[in-house]
Amino acid sequence: MADSKEKDMKVSRRDFLRLTGITMAGITVGQDVLAFTKIQAVGDPLKEYPYRGWEDLYRKEWTWDKVQFATHSSGCVAGCSWKVYTKDGIPIREEQTSNYPQYAKGVPDMNPRGCQKGGCFTSWMLAPEMLKYPLKRIGARGEGKWKRISWDEAYDEIADKLIDVTLKDPGSIANANRYFRALGKAAGMRLAALLGGETLAVSAFVGDLYPGTHTTRVEARTVSTFDDWFTSDLIISWAKNIVPLRIPDAHFAMEAKYNGGRFVAIDVTYSPTATKADLWMPVKMGTDSHLAASIVNILINEKLYKEDYIKVHTDLPFLVRKDTGKFLTGKDFKSDAKEFIYYLWDKKTGKAVEAPGTMDSANKTVKLEGIDPAIEGIFKVELPDGKEVEVTTVFENIRKEIALFTPETTQKTTGVHPSNVRKLTKWIAESKALRILQGYNLEKHFDGHQTSRLIMLIHCLTGHQGTTGSVDTTYEGWSLGPYSGLRNVGEKKSKSTPGVLAEWDYGDHAERSKTYFDQKELKEKLGFDVDGMVAYKNEAEAKGWMPKAKAIPKVMFWEHCNYFRHIAGENHFREKALPKVDLIVMTDIRVASSGLWADILLPTAGDYEVIDARETSVTPYLHAFLKPVDPLFERKSEWQIFVELSKRVQEKAKTRGIGSIPYGKVTIDLHTMYDEFTMNGKIANDEDAIKHIFEKAKALGMERYKEFIEKGFCFIGPEAGKTTPIPSDRPHRPFVKPVAEKTPIPTNTGRFQFYVDHDWYLKLNMAVPKPQYSGGDLGPKKFPFVMDYPHTRWGIHSQYRTEKRMMRLQRGTVYIYLNPDVMARKGIKDGDAIRTFNDHGEFWGMAKAWPGLPEYIVFHEHGWEAHLTPKRMGYNSVNADILNPLAMIGKHGHIKYIGGNFNPNRIYYETRVDIEKVEIPVKKT
Known about the structure:
- Among the domains are: about 5-125, no CATH class; about 310-400 and about 735-765, no CATH class; about 785-915, Barwin-like endoglucanases.
- About 25% of the residues lie in helices and about 15% in strands.
- The protein is built from 29 helices and 32 strands.
- Strand 4 and strand 5 form a beta hairpin.
- Helix 7 packs parallel to helix 15, helix 10 (about 290-300) crosses helix 14 and helix 10 (about 290-300) packs parallel to helix 15 (about 450-460).
- The longest helix has 18 residues, at about 150-170.
- The protein is globular, with a radius of gyration of 29 Å.
- The chain starts with 12 loop residues before the first helix and ends in an 8-residue tail after the last strand.
């Protein structure tokens, strides 16, 4: 990079090596010593010890000036406390703290927490791609030509553009943010709120949403703390490869197994997790909904369900009209009744009676209070106009629709033998404490929406949800009030926009998808093609169900967000979208591959250079970043970057005489932006902002802040739990409180809900959980292989992928797993360079044999940086987007747009490709 010379560094790599004692420079020793050829025996080292110069190398490496706590903010959800050792202001190594208390009697403690990724951060933060100074693009976007600029120059250019854009087109600013730090996350969103901008809902970017689960319980990404796995007697790891990817927590599942429990892996590959299983179910890729449906079929037909539980805690006994397919509601009896009043058939009175505890019920309990609801049968209800209608139950509808999915029938689709399905279902029925660990990969299939609903149905039919187990998706941010509240400024909030739908507009994804998928096949299997998807999208946006993004914004902030890593057809997107963006600012610790298309790169402080906090619900702790070292070079914390940028905007607005700009129900006040951002200076620095969070959050407080500073983490108070208070003496488990106390959950029915009577669900015959189509993938069939893009064990998304020790643990380059039999047929040997391609793109990698991979799959872990491959062509070049209308409905009670819960997920796993051996070398780092 231009103007980034070694002599300009405040701390050079040579200085780092010298300070840590890793280099031999300056140590004068003989060749015989270096060769270790004259090792002397030492009788009593306490009396006499010969000087051996080469030992200084190791002595100097293990000396330090200071030890401080930190954690890591990459896209992992673990949350681990680390000690960071520093010398002369340079981090030299880290180690796990291992001082978590054993707060739950009889349950293993959380020690140790960490993985090899976190253990290499001191090395990675000094890697060549790490940003040191602000840089401005001087070549074409993507060319990689930069010049070093000062922070003042960067602030001036960005502030001027923000003011000019706001005056001409208020709100034409978008924020894509993937930080896992409290202040890092809030900073850019807070600025966007003050500018009337949009914040793209980024979880869907990478397919990490569970909209299907949301329909059943609202809190889709809610989990137990992972030590609660230990309390299970049956754990089903469903498309979740916990052994290499949940490194701090996998031992809880293994210890549950050692304690007498059973462990099942449902996975398309013989993964590291599958090797630990008592039963491995090798389901064909994309057919998990059919497997789940066959389990439901057995549970219902063999009456292996808990009737008392489903009567109280699910909508299965609720009445549905046979003529319309809609719930029987209060409006059927009175036109001015509230919308979400539902009915049960009381076997005692032989009448339809109002169900207590629904969203619009005055009775705020789900206790049946003398009602004995029927779960089976067809009944007649007389309406006020004298008309008689037939009604049945949700349970009957499910039983009817699921009848086709017997284990024998689904074997043709899933490849799983009926005996194994029956064996697993028997284990589920016998289980006293069932845990289902649901991986992200499921809803990255088109039919994943239905798979999620069916998994919840399995758990609720057997009475485990909120009692003796949970369906653990991935994580849930604790409810900490100002932790997320800092993202808004009073009534000024950035507009949350569905990330995937925004990108459909930005990059005209429909155009690419129409030339990618077989339109006739889509129409036959799904009932609509890509044009139909666009029609559903347009209707959802026109009716306000899904917020519609503005035309592509004039200014985009990519904050710790490797923007193009997730986009299907990234080359197509860049061609269509980027020419319309005036300014792209990327704030990051490194020059990720997407950064090559930015206009200004701002170097943010790394995890060991900030004061901040992170939280996830895998542990009951809030973890601390306590700034073991001051930011190296010219890096700044995200909070400081946006505080200072807001100050520059305010100064320039005042100089130009700019006042309030009307914008919707609020105003954009450029002339007071710094004052609003910092609460008149109250939270202008990082430490004050963190203290503000602790002072205001009921689940924290200043006593916990003291623990946070002293230990590197603090226990979170009970108020942090979204569905159940956080206990102090046992693992957290979601939904325990509403189930135990029989209080409603915030679904339309007040219960775990499985029937959706929205018009689109009825039109597509998806009102009950069942497979959405016949199974398999939807990609172009002229290509023989389907793509699988799971998480990597050698990085966290694209982070750490270029760290030297991570590369040494693998092959040092991009690799692609293939079945050995496929390799033999294709004339490919282990280590050969191969090209993966279809009509829309191509990428390269090194062939890596894996006997545990089915022949029909090309397996390529996501997260590889495009600049590691020839032509900078990454795996997303072969993908196209596809939308499921079931995730685009809204204004249907609890089923509505929520950025982190309900909106269209990115569906990667409908991609087909071919492979061939090539002679070009695979680029190595």
